Structure formats: structure tokens, C-alpha cells
């Protein structure tokens, strides 16, 4: 089984980190490669970033369709997921959708820890699209008035607030740039902490083994 | 006041028809031009079509931002509306959103007459995005087992079914390719029939006169 | 084109303020008059106030139906809107519905700045009626424990709280008594601030030009 | 305990029928009187009918507030219920709200049998107001193309359709004009059939015994 | 009329308190007995507690079906309510459902005062089941960082917070262990305070008098 | 990795069929055993069936907690899922929840093919619990007026109707008794057909590899 993870931005460091996470989880049971999109933005933050990344993402899927069994979009806003689901017969999984739907199976409600306040409404729009508003405790970004030692401390504090104030029972890391922090945060927080890359691997490898893919009857008909 | 209507596809006939509708409604009170996207698909039907149209749409807005007071996206699936709202400070209105929100003010529930069965779920996803599911009677496409004299007869029959079976009180034309049929259908049906191009002009010219535009505080911050 | 704005209360000062706002926006392109209801309460706050205002509102529409092309109800709780939509074939627009539906096109979510805490649940009930709960950031009234210089300072502080705490992206002025403050607040707040009277004029003049009105097929059949 | 049932229309025959139903259910355990509104329409069908009935309803409550322990509005569209809840400290129950909330406790979903197709959207709007859309199987009116022996046969056929086609498990009689048919229909249908007048008596006598009434803290503050 | 109240736990003190409340409300108009489940947990807090209580509850209903006219489940999480509705033709009412549906008729929104933070999500899941999320102001448990004189003071403070912060207009006591406090709290709070045992008696005695019970057509077919 | 599949009924044939499906999918990558509940009903259809199965299910989990890495409940109504999630620290997956959440990732909407009309409302209640109503095309049971060659032909016809009439894009087999039919139906239908046992294996083996389980912070705290 061969999985291609698409990092929709052009950041090589993030690409490597995602690949590391994926390879560790794959544990040599299947092959997994992460590729970024040359010419895409350094970081996917705006709707325009998503649009700019699209042609490269489409090209990557088309060029690799024969060689891979399924695709993951490794940006938590699931950019161009509908388009990719449509253009290929192979299964495609977004790390946003996978992580939040798995989160909804592990507790009463989940919170998404987001990079910036700017991204909160965009994430809420995505959560609404996935019918998950009733399972959402909150989307929270770090308190910008506080200085933290490092990023991990910042996200830890944010997650703690969602658990105590918003009654979150599961934490979803809201950016693939947070990959690798899940188990350390989980240890501190005492609730499940989900890395979208791993959640997408769980769903995607399952779909491939089961030999099912996107329905092509109407919405995702090419 | 100068309005630019963006026809996201590359069909010149449709572009002309849209412009005709718009000019007739504008009645020389303001200037309105419709431009299509060279190199875009002939018809926007799939998610990939929307993606392929995006760069040309962005370019058109950027090149014309100084010369126009606002923009309309003249495809009823509102392709790339979030992106255009984000990249310009000028107001941007989609004919899908404008027509369905105005429809919700004119009766208990509305139905969208859609070109093909294929587009029904995509339209439903859009309607959900706009929080309008509770005001929706149905999305219907013509019965493909029946032969009709012409397109207009086909859409008329479909609209009649939505009024009688689904209890629709307002009809929304679900494609800018239906422009020009509204008043003839309305006469036959006895309920309001909305052309999205005109609905978008109503909202957009209003926003321009009122000097308000997309909020730039978070979701649509460039 | 001739528009009649109905101020459902009997306050002449408010009637004049509404008329001033409307005339300035109309800019001599059409005629607009605001009339209040003699014998109606000084201020529409309770359900009984709405009921007491009803006969005068009905009479005003009936007496003026021939002379005007459409009607606006200039109270943000849209009193008797269903009744007026029903009794006349001319279009009727409520400033509550118009302002909140336009707000939902300008940002991720909106907040309504309300006069008093007492009116918050009533406003929420109205927002639910219009299917807009998912687009609502909050309804807030001024903090009654703080002394403000003047009303405008009070509403400004309230709006700021909705933007910072509730992540509102658009502000809706929740009472026609706030007419005239919109652009000054907008300048301070940096997000769109909507006066319902102007929003209703945008929709109503558009409907009149488009020659569409309330569907008479069922819910609003006289 | 003394109950006043308000028949918002001016039909004496209906008033008597309601009173008969109520007296039979009261079984001399408490006093119950039904009064109609002189000058109100013969039948409450439109929003204007509701508005026209309002002053008489308010007057009736005010004049009888001291002498009665609670009030019922005996029209299934619950006209002016918010207003009456607001103007009196005594409990007020609408037969629409009472019957549909009790219906939601007796089965998975309920259907309302309505007089005319015209009233379906109005009833749906009411059901949405009471948060009951998820418990609704359907609102149905009799098939107008079929001739029935009598009204009861017509409503029986309509109810059967809702049970078989819409999977309704409980039937709500959607008009106080159907009072008295409940047990005969129930015998034929094999599912609970609810008369709103009796449901309202159940709730209202309970509230009176419990000495609780409408909360006056905000929404229904006079 | 004979009512059997089932206390699903094995706490005799609570059983006596429930019976006292019920007898006082019944006022000798009907017979009411409260029985607990020998071998059930001392307090129903977890899902397992509900499961463990089930066989005893089923047995109690089966053994007493002939002798009683209806049953109440006197635990605010309504344990095994679907099962009991299914196994008997006699009406069954849960104090959770009855109290929260009556609450929704007495004000704009209600809050549930809950014993512990642990039970908040479980209560929210129940409220969603009953379609009442839109009428819910909040579920709140006492602030555990504060020392209170006694339980009643603790619940009073919690209820006050829901009224002031969450804009609750009606208070529902979220545990049958709070029985007897309603009128004292109501006096302090100035809004209706509902004891589920009494609310269930109101509904159940009404259903019995009306001779209606759970629909047996599908969902609750034995 | 060792998985225990709990068949909540006492039917050995079904237990074997489930185990066969599971073993084929596991493909020797992990160990999977299916056990039924001695003394449980032959078929889980009613709420009482679910209740009667509970003690055996709890006992099975408790006795096997040390020896297995996770549990699956192999009945599509997910009986006692909340209870099992609560009593063990190991992950527990229901085939209903797993199959319907995966279905929502493979197409616009899904339909559940159900055994009997009786089970439709119960399934709808479950779907509402999982926040999936917006992704549901329909729950359908076979047309009882038609004679079919065999069960598979019956479910095939039912699934075809959901695709054509209800616009379902994905089919979920609504009973573990249908295990083994998925790929044959899929070939005929041309859309993904999901067997809940396999979907649950996908999720559960993923959770085990990822070393995450049910959040124990509140709702599922033992």
C-alpha cells in the first residue's frame, strides 16, 4: 500500500515533520511519502492561499494517481478537498475532517486549538460544513497578551482553557505545523489529543484495505 | 457607479445574455459590464471547474479593482466567493447567495430549479453554508425521462412540481444560463421567480451606495 | 418610485430622524416618507406594544396602498411584518430582517447591539425565526453598571465587546432609535455597522425595480 | 380552580363545542368556561385575523384576571400567545404548543392534520418557533381532489396518510374546530390522537396547582 | 387513579423525600407511591448505574402494571425511559423530559442546575435527544472552589449565575435529590423553579385522565 | 493486537458470519474474535433487548479487558455503547457510529438500509444522537408488499430506491445480519456500500495503534 500525503504549502521543514510523523505511525506496514507544492504559499492561511495551492495539488494527484493508493491533504483547513475527491477515483482524506470526526467518537465534545484568532471563523465554517457544530466545545487560539516559553507551552495553555472553560473532552490540533506534539500534550492534559495526519492515515489506510472510495454518483462525479 | 460582473466561465453567449439582463435592470442608472474568464471552462459544473476558474477570477478583480465599485460572481454556485471577498476591499456578491437570501424574504420557502440532477447535492451544500436549509423547499432538476419542447418548458414544468409537491412559494433560477426567463416563468407560475444576476445587482448597488463592504476583521482578512 | 416608511410608534422625533436617514440615502432618486402611528406607544418594547400598534399599521398600509410602491417597518423587532406582508400585494420589508440578512453577507457572524437586556431574548426569538442563529455572534445590550458620556459611547463600548469577546465581524444596530450613528461607530470599530432603515431601503427599492413582491400562494395569501 | 378558555374567533358553535370538550374533561374537578371574542373574525386563518382578534383577547384577559386562575388560547395557531403571556401574571397556555409538546412525549414523531393547504407553512413556522421541527413527521391537509362523506372521514384519511407515508406515530388535531373527534379517530388509527384543548387543560391545571407561571424576568416582562 | 413513582436508585431517604413531594402535590386527589430499586446503586450518576438499575425497573413495571395507571421515573437523567415506554401500554413519564418541556413553555430559555460538573455533558446529550438545545440557556453545576453553608445555598448561587450570566428565565432542578427546594429557591430567585417530580405528575395524571399513552406503532412497539 | 467483537445477541450463526467478515478483513495482521452474549435475545430489535443484553456485555468487557486491546459492538443500533465506553479504558467502537461517520466522508449523503419499518425511527434517533441528520438521505426498509427471491435481492432493491429517490450517495448496511453482502451490492449499485463491522475495525485498529481511547474527563468517567 502506498500513501501520498500532500502538504499544500511549500514549507520543506513542515513537509519533513509531517513525513516523520506519518512514517513513525506507518511503522513500515505501508509506504508513505509527503510532498509539498512548489510555488505554493509558505503557509496556508487565507482563502487565496488555498486557491493558489490548487493547481499544484491537482497536478500532484494526476501525476501520481497510478502509483499511489490514496491521498491525504495535510493542512487542517482541508484546502481543495472537494476538488481532489472529485478528480480521482482513489480515496482522498483531509486531516481536518478525519481528526474532527474521530474526535467526535472519543468524547462528548472537542475543541480545536488554532494558530491565530484570524483562523477561528474559517475553522468554524469548516466544522459547520462537516455537520459537527453540535459536537464542538470551541475553537480557541492562544491568548496573544501572554508571553510563552515556546509554541508548545502556548498550545498547552490554550488546550487547558478549552478543557476547563469550554468543557472540551478531546483536543484536536488545528494545524499540521503542530505535528509531533500530540503525545506530550496528552500527557499533560489527561484527555485525547489528536494529530490530524495520523487520524487521516487511520481512515485512509482503512478505506484502501476495504477497497472503497468516494462515491461518484453525483456530488463528486468528475 | 461602475459594476463588474464576472462570468466565471468562458462562454461568450452567456456573458452577453448576463450583460443584457444587467443593463436592462440598471436602466442607465449605473454602468455595468460583464466579462468572462478566458481559458476558463465553457460551463462551471464541477469543483475542478471552480478551481480552474479561480486564477482568472482573481486576476480580473485585481486588474479592475481601481476602476470598479463592486463585483458580482455570475454563476449560481458562487465559485471562489470567499476568496474574492477576501482579496478586495470592494464589495463582492454571489448570485447564489443574493438570490436565495432575497427569496427567503419573499415567502415561507423557496425551491431552486437546477440544470442537472448531478448539481443537486452541490447546491444543497451551498445552501447549508448560507444557513438556509430551513427555508428551502427543494432543489429540483428537470425530469430526464420527459421530452420538452425547449429549455424554458422544461424549467417551467420543474418549477411547477416544486410549487405543488414541495410547497415552494418562491422560485430561484439555479443557473445564470437561465437569465432572461424569470418574468415569463413568473407569469405562468404565479409566484416570484428570481434571477440571481438581478438579485446580486440589488444587493451590490445597495452596498456601494451605503459605502459598506466585507468585514476585514478576521474571516475575510487578506 | 414612492416608499412609505412606517414608524410603528408615536414618537415624532424618531420619525423625523428615520426620515432624515432615509432621505439622505435616497438622494432624490426616489421619494421616501416616514409616518408614525398616532395612538401607538411612544416606544415599541413589549409584545403588547406590537399588538397595540397593529391596527394603525394596517390602516396606514390600506390607506396608502395605491400611492406607494412599497413599505418599510422601521422598528428592529419587525412588529406585524407577517400581517403586513399578507394584506398588501406591494412589497414590505422589515428593518430587522433586512439588516440581519445583509449582515450575514458581509462577514462570518454578526452581533446585534440592543437597547436593553430585556430585549435580548425577544431579539433571539426573531433571529431564530429568520434562520440566522448560526450566523449570530451575540445579542448584547449595554453594561448597566457603567456610566457613559452619552448613548453613542454606550453603544460603541457594547459593540467593541461583541467584536472582541464574541468575535462579531459585523454590527447591526438593534433599534431604529440608533439611526444616524452607523458611520461614526463604523469609523471607530473598523467593521461594517448597519442601520436597518438603510438596509431595508436597499432591499425594498430593489424589489420594486425588479417588480417582485411577497408570494401570495400560501403563507401570505390574504 | 377557575379556567377561562379564550376562543379567539367569534363563532358561537365552536365556542360551545370547545366548552363541551373542556367540561367533559374537567369532570367537575374545576370550573371551566369558554368565551369567544365579539367582533373577531368567524375563523382565524390569516395573520390579519390574529391581529384583529388581539384587542378583544387582551381585554378579555384584563377584565377576567382577578376571577380566573389561568387562561387557554383555543386556536391551534396560538394567536397572540406571547402577548397574553406578557400581560398577565396568571399562566397562559396555547393549544398548539401544549398539544405538540405533549405529542413529542408520546412517540418518535407527530403529524399535524391541518384544515387547508394554505395553513401548512404557517403551522411549520409555529413548529419551528417551538423547537419541534426534529420531532415533526409532517403537516398535512386533506387531499382536495377527493370527495369525502364528511369532515371526519376527510381528517381520518389525512391522518392515515401521515402514519403510513410520513411515519407519524402521534396525530395532533390542527384546529379547535376538530374538537370532539379525537377518540373516534384514535380508535380507527391505533395511535394517540390529541385534541389541543385537552392538552392545554392538562398543562394549565398542572401549572395552577403547582403555583408557577410565566417567567417575568425578561422576554415576558410586562 | 394510582401512580407509581420509580426511584431508580436504592436510597430510601431520597425515596421518602420524593414520595413526600408527590403526596403533597397529589393532595389526596389520587394515590401515589414511590418505590426504589433494591440492589440498584445508591445514586445514579454513570451510564453503568443506569444499566444496573434497568432489570429492577423493568421488573417493577411488570409486577405493578395491572395495579397502577401510569409510571414516573424519578431520576433527572431519565434512565431507561425508552425501554419502559416500550414494555408497558400504560403511560410512562421521565422527570427530566417533563420538567424541561414544561420549562420551555414558561420562558424564553431555561437552565438546569446540576449536581456535579461530571454530569453536564450527559445532561446536554439528553437535552439534545429531546430537541431542546435551542431553548437551553445552560447546564451549570456549583462552583467547586467555593464553600457554601449548605446544599441549598450552593444551588441557589448556581441558579443565580445562570439567570445573570446565561440569561436563563426558568430554573430546572437537575436531580430528584433536590426535591423540596423549589419554592424556597423560587422565592429568592424571582423566576419559576421546577421540580421534575411535580412536572411529571402534571403530565402523567393528564395523560391518564385523557386516556392516552405511548404510541405503539413503531419506535415503542414491544 | 487483539480485538474482541461483541455480538450483543445470542445468535451463533450471526456470530460466525461476523467473525468471518472480520477475519477476512484482518488478514492475519491482528487477532480478532467475535463472541455473543449467552442468554441475550436471538435478535436485538427493541429497547428491552438492548437492556437485557447489557449485563452480559458489561461482564464480557470486564472479563476480557486485560486480554484485548479494544472492543467492537456488532449491532447497528450500538446498544449500550455509552456504558461500555464508560466502564473500560480500552477503546470501544460501535458499528453504527463507525459506519455512518465513515459514510459521511465518502459522499454528500448516505442512506441506511434497515431490516424492518419498525426500526426506522429508532435508527433516526441514533443518527440524531451522532449529529448526522444533515448527512442523511434516508433510512429505508424493504417494501413489504413485494416478494423477493431472497434477502439480498430485497436489500438491493431498497438500496436502489434510496439512490434514485432519496439521492443517497453511500449505502450503510443497517444490521450486522447483512454482513458479507457489501461487495456484491456495491457491484450492482455503483456506490460505496459499508459493512459496519469493517468500518468499526478500521476505526478501532487505528485508535489502538495511535494509543488513544475514550476521554475520561467527564461524560465517560467511570
Which key phrases capture this entry?
homohexamer; 222 residues; alpha/beta; Rossmann fold; 2 domains; four-stranded parallel beta sheet; 8 helices
Can I get a quick summary?
Chain A is of the alpha/beta class and 222 residues long. Chain A has helices at residues 12-26, 47-64, 81-87, 95-103, 120-129, 151-164, 182-189, 196-210; strands at residues 2-7, 31-36, 70-73, 92-94, 110-113, 136-140, 170-173, 193-194.
Question: Mind explaining what this structure looks like?
Answer:
6 copies of one chain form a homohexamer. With 222 residues, the first copy, chain A, is of the alpha/beta class. Chain A folds into 2 domains: 2-94 and 198-210, 3-Layer(aba) Sandwich (Rossmann fold); 97-196, Rossmann fold, CATH 3.40.50.12500. Chain A is built from 8 helices and 8 strands. In chain A, the strands form 2 sheets. Chain A has a 4-stranded parallel sheet, sandwiched between helices. The first copy, chain A, has a 4-stranded parallel sheet with strand order 6-5-7-8, sandwiched between helices. Chain A is globular and about 50 Å long. The interface between A and F is large, with 51 and 51 residues.
Amino acid at each position: 500500500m502506498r500513501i501520498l500525503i500532500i502538504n499544500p504549502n511549500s514549507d520543506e521543514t513542515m513537509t519533513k515533520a509531517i513525513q516523520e510523523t506519518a512514517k513513525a505511525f506507518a511503522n513500515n506496514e505501508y509506504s508513505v511519502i509527503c510532498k509539498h507544492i512548489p510555488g505554493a504559499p509558505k503557509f496556508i492561511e487565507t482563502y487565496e492561499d488555498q486557491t493558489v495551492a490548487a493547481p499544484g495539488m491537482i497536478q500532484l494527484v494526476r501525476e501520481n494517481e497510478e502509483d499511489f493508493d490514496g491521498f491525504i491533504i495535510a493542512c487542517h483547513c482541508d484546502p481543495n478537498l472537494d476538488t481532489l475527491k472529485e478528480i480521482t477515483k482513489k480515496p482522498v482524506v483531509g486531516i481536518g475532517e478525519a481528526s474532527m470526526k474521530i474526535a467526535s467518537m472519543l468524547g462528548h465534545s472537542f475543541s480545536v486549538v488554532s494558530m491565530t484568532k484570524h483562523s477561528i471563523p474559517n475553522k468554524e465554517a469548516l466544522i459547520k460544513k462537516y455537520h459537527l457544530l453540535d459536537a464542538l466545545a470551541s475553537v480557541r487560539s492562544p491568548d496573544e497578551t501572554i508571553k510563552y516559553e515556546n509554541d508548545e507551552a502556548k498550545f498547552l495553555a490554550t488546550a487547558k482553557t478549552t478543557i476547563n472553560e469550554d468543557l472540551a473532552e478531546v483536543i484536536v490540533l488545528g494545524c499540521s505545523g503542530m505535528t509531533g506534539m500530540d503525545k506530550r500534550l496528552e500527557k499533560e492534559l489527561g484527555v485525547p489529543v489528536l494529530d490530524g495526519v495520523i487520524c487521516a492515515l487511520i481512515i485512509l489506510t482503512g478505506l484502501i484495505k476495504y477497497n472503497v472510495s468516494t462515491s461518484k454518483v453525483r456530488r463528486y462525479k468528475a
